[in-house]
Write a structure and sequence with these properties.
Elements: E1 5-8, H1 13-25, E2 30-33, H2 44-49, E3 57-59, E4 65-67, H3 69-80, H4 91-120, H5 129-146, H6 160-175, H7 184-196, H8 200-231
Parallel strand pairs: 1-2
Antiparallel strand pairs: 1-3, 3-4
Helix pairs in contact: 1-3, 1-6, 1-8, 4-5, 4-6, 4-8, 6-8
Organism: Bactrocera dorsalis
InterPro entries: Glutathione-S-Trfase_C-like, Glutathione-S-Trfase_C_sf, Glutathione_S-Trfase, Glutathione_S-Trfase_N, Thioredoxin-like_sf
Domain GST C-terminal: 90-219
Length: 233
């Protein structure tokens, strides 16, 4: 019997969020590794699945294709979850979860995209002040959104918003650490997630380290190039 497929690369926070969500609900996926370095995401076969050439991509047993991690997680939980705790059917609760998913995509993950744009492709050897400000802004809002709750979206239980935020935040924390004095609730939440999320080390941390290593290596190379060019100015 065929299984749903998930096209992924472990360094991708959105892909990791989908993998962890599937594990949380007991969904057995066929994981399809996409070698981004070899530009497999630009092959005609992959572009037929996702013209945006991004990961992850979810292919259902009937070959229906879904893209965008937030949509994929919501679909998986709605169809395969044993209950609706992770993505509530109650419209008010769901709206709060949706808000945090949009925040993750529109604010938090944009910090990572800014790093990729500047430090991987833009030739910058240090974190730009704009990047640092974007990150501080995201951390500040996350601290406020948690309030007195153990989970985001003012939920009593773990939701896909927590999973999505965690995979991005773990990656960012390795590059621009969350200050436990300024953001104690956020720091406590991150510690809580270590015990609640499956495959934390082998999926989440391993993937986050791969992403951070790529960014740091590019920054080192960029600094060398800048210093070399300066010598001959």
């Amino acid at each position: 019997m065929s299984k749903p497929k998930l096209y992924y690369s472990l360094f991708s926070p959105p892909a990791r969020a989908c993998i962890l969500t599937a594990e949380l609900i007991g969904l057995d996926l066929e994981l399809m590794l996409v070698n981004m370095a070899a530009k497999q995401h630009f092959t005609p076969e992959y572009l037929a699945l996702n013209p945006q050439h991004q990961i992850p991509v979810f292919v259902e047993e009937d070959n229906e294709v879904f893209i965008d991690s937030h949509a994929i997680m919501a679909y998986m939980v709605s169809k395969y979850g044993k209950n609706d705790d992770m993505y509530p059917k109650d419209l008010k609760k769901r709206a709060r979860v949706d808000h945090m998913l949009h925040f993750e995509n529109g604010v938090l993950f944009q910090v990572i995209k800014d790093m990729v744009r500047r430090n991987i492709y833009g030739g910058e050897g240090e974190f730009n002040k704009i990047t640092l400000d974007l990150c501080d802004n995201a951390y500040t809002f996350l601290e406020a959104f948690l309030g007195k709750s153990n989970f985001f979206a003012n939920s009593e239980t773990l939701t896909i918003a927590d999973v999505s935020i965690n995979t991005s935040l773990v990656s960012l924390d390795m590059l621009i650490p969350v200050d436990k004095n300024r953001f104690p609730r956020l720091q406590a939440w991150m510690e809580r997630m270590k015990a609640l999320l499956p495959s934390y080390e082998e999926v989440n941390i391993k993937g986050a380290k791969a992403l951070c290593e790529r960014i740091r290596n590019c920054m080192r190379e960029n600094k060398v190039k800048t210093e070399s060019n300066t010598e001959y100015d």
